Task: structure prediction
Amino acid sequence: MTLSFSLQQPHIRAKIIGILLITLGSIFFLNYFIHNDQLSLKIGFTSLLIGLFTIAMITEKSIPQRISETQIQGNLHAVTTITQALNLTGNAIFLPTSKILTEERVFIPLNNTQRKIPESLDDDFVFSTGQGGESLGIVLQPSGYSMLQELEKEADFANTDLDAIEEKLQTFLGMNLLKSISFTQNEKEWQLTVEKPLLCPNNILLCRQYPCPTCSAALIALTRSSKQKIRINDVIIAGKKTAFHLRPED
Result:
């Protein structure tokens, strides 16, 4: 499955084609030296040139990674500033779509004890003022929403049940967003474990309240597939692996 997803990536295909052309060129060069065939010399030289060009040019990154990382860190820093200013200490709750909410959202509550989600939450809802016993908090679009929209061109999470979700999550490996990803579940808790998310600041507070785009996209995928609210109970970072301990709710 991982190999299949990898072969769908343009830079992987470019490398394979480039290697094949270089190999073909070497064979024609060998034929030239053996038979002194001028046509073999021309074909061999052309194949080598195109193969090297394919590997060197098509696989070159258009935007330096440090620029993308700076942009993402800037957005995450802005959210951190808001949550600290509002004194919000609760862990994130990923919300599925509903009759009045057309896109998944993240609710960051005041704390982890009073976590009643506003019932009137729709696309325009941002601040929960705590009326009617609801938790104070803010509602934001998850940082990985746009990323998941792109990933869904390769894998349909909305129409995938949880028994098949781990296979679909391997899309993250095919897109070179993660080194590994696994999902386990029981009646009381789910666990999503990812290894080396792309452009992740490894900030435990952010992981609990507003995960980086890659982890966020995976969590939205679970929300979209299960059509349930998903609370982040805890996050454990061990080396390059991050484990999200989750509690689903109807």
